[in-house]
TrEMBL record:
Key words, A-Z: Cobalamin biosynthesis, Glycosyltransferase, Transferase
Protein name according to UniProt: Nicotinate-nucleotide--dimethylbenzimidazole phosphoribosyltransferase
Example GO molecular function: nicotinate-nucleotide-dimethylbenzimidazole phosphoribosyltransferase activity
Organism name: Hymenobacter fodinae
Lineage, broadest ranks: Bacteria, Pseudomonadati, Bacteroidota, Cytophagia, Cytophagales
Matches recorded under Pfam families: DBI_PRT (PF02277)
Function: Catalyzes the synthesis of alpha-ribazole-5'-phosphate from nicotinate mononucleotide (NAMN) and 5,6-dimethylbenzimidazole (DMB).
The UniProt record lists the keyword S-adenosyl-L-methionine: no
Amino acid sequence: MPDFHIQPLNQSLAAAIQHKIDTKTKPLGALGQLEQLARQVALVQQTLTPALQHPHMLVFAADHGIAQEGVSKYPQEVTYQMVLNFLSGGAAINVFSRQQGIALRIVDAGVKGSFTEFPAVVDQKIAEGTCSFLREPAMSSAQCEQALAAGARLAQEVAATGCNVLGFGEMGIGNTSAATMLMHRLTGLPLEACLGRGTGLDDDQLAHKAAVLTAAAATHATVSAPLDVLATFGGFEIAQMTGAMLAAAEAGMLLLIDGFIATAALLVAVKLHPAVLEYCVFGHQSEETGHRLLLGHLNARPLLSLGLRLGEGTGCALAYPLLQAAVNFLNEVASFESAGVSQAEPQPASAV
Ligand SMILES: Cc1cc2ncn([C@H]3O[C@H](COP(=O)(O)O)[C@@H](O)[C@H]3O)c2cc1C
Ligand SMILES: O=C(O)c1cccnc1
């Protein structure tokens, strides 16, 4: 396990930041969650004048052995095919990243198939997909460590380019099953509460997914330590995301968290280093059933709720303009004093 040193946010500027927010030309608290976001960005960056620099999105892709058990609506080869789609710029995450000026990098964390002809792919392939966790652990402990380290290295590399805000996306047919197991085992919530339709299973297919995952939970009944849970049920893209999230927080970046799968990767990171949570902005609440409860477990308040159930980082790319608005608010909105606007009247003394 790479060694991560994640500092809880230094609160010494908190009062000054709050004062700056409270003296802006608006009723006290009137920008709601945007004010909390501004406070968080300022604390993460330790400044009264924060700035978002060189935003990046990392999309980690990998295949899952569990996909062979009929737990997804789509065949496994879609993972490889979607990576090609990312490379040609035609996927939803390409469109939204372009729109927001977010640099996008596609990572082969463990896709079945070769990308040697595509140098734009960041090659961090651990293996050609995981094993089916219905029968055996998805990966070995050594592979899990390797994946965490590879993700961490990439986040460090991106930080070194001057980026201070990093989004995390994923692609991997079957990965809502992996995320469900991580959530179930690490939160203790019942499996049914963590389970959802992923790419769009119908009722019968959902019942089959539930049966497969129930059997897998029984096969690995005693696994409980976060890294063991990750190796047993996770995916190479999930483990690389976990490592990248920890390294990004260590580097003092803001982390943009997407939907169910990205939040499951974060859950592992939080169980290892709880302070990582202070650096996270939650882009949205996914339509995937377990996501609401998972966000609740993390005490996280998402920015958007659009009924998205896609992944790829789309929910955090769509929320990025709100983060930018929070920063602009703190830097550009006039204060009562600078604009010559009168502040709230003191409450009159009661006549009775
Ligand atoms: C064309 C296509 C594009 C996607 N982009 C993200 N996902 C999403 O769906 C998958 C998870 O759902 P499940 O566990 O049901 O397989 C992941 O690849 C996730 O990123 C996609 C899925 C498909 C089919
Ligand atoms: O919330 C997500 O990330 C999600 C939901 C369904 C399918 N793929 C991803």
